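STRUCTURE:
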């Protein structure tokens, strides 16, 4: 495997793994305010990545469509929303703080469904990194290796708190520290796998690039609106989620503009 591609796919997974390792150093459950702030930060990174790293390049890739340059982005974005909605309904999973699982009935353990919930929303992040790396590999002038790495680093930064957010509840549910770490780490394993599959698909059908870029953006936005925003707003009113959302958005925007 090309080392540029390896690092582009591995860095987000490394972010999840380092976050999951927090279970070895933290005691008890994560404070609700901290969890809310980390969720807000992740949301801000994902929204900014969807716009600067995915939707804008998708529209630029379709510039020869003239006034209809928005069309592939609209189609892809809608497809990404519907794809995640479909997965949400066929995969049993349990969101943080929820009492009832979503998806079909199953006899899976509560901890397993917590991992599946995080794994589910890591799928679009892997796709996003994969399609941008594929754009770099196929020689699309608007997508440079620097912009691909900016997205990879941004996803890794927001994966760090996500790794902690999943491993700590697993520990609180009675798992040992090592099992909690592995559970948190494995929730991010879908990202390099999904990224590689996306690279292979895009390399086969290069004209799909604007559709796949916006597809990944739609999938990421589904996760933000359906899961992360409700989580950071749940319970007693607090401004921490909004402030960390803004911080995450600014960090990802800075990375993309400065490096891209």
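SEQUENCE:
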């Amino acid at each position: 495997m090309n080392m540029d591609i390896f690092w582009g796919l591995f860095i987000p997974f490394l972010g999840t793994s380092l976050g999951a390792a927090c279970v070895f150093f933290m005691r008890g459950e994560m404070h609700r305010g901290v969890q809310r702030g980390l969720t807000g930060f992740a949301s801000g990174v994902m929204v900014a990545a969807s716009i600067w790293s995915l939707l804008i390049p998708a529209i630029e890739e379709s510039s020869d469509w003239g006034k209809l340059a928005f069309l592939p982005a609209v189609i892809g974005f809608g497809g990404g929303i519907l794809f995640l909605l479909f997965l949400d309904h066929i995969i049993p999973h349990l969101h943080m703080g929820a009492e009832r699982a979503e998806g079909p009935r199953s006899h899976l353990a509560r901890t397993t469904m917590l991992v599946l919930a995080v794994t589910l929303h890591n799928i679009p992040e892997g796709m996003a990194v994969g399609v941008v790396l594929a754009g770099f590999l196929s020689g699309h002038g608007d997508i440079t290796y620097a912009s691909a790495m900016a997205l990879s680093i941004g996803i890794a930064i927001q994966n760090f708190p996500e790794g902690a957010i999943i491993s700590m509840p697993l520990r609180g549910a009675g798992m040992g520290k090592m099992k909690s770490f592995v559970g948190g780490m494995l929730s991010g394993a879908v990202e390099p796998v999904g990224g590689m599959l996306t690279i292979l698909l895009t390399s086969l059908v290069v004209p799909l690039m604007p559709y796949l870029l916006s597809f990944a953006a739609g999938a990421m936005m589904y996760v933000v609106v359906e899961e992360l925003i409700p989580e950071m707003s749940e319970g007693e009113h607090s401004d921490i989620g909004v402030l960390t959302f803004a911080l995450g958005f600014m960090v990802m925007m800075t990375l993309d503009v400065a490096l891209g």
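REMARK: The mean pLDDT is 86.
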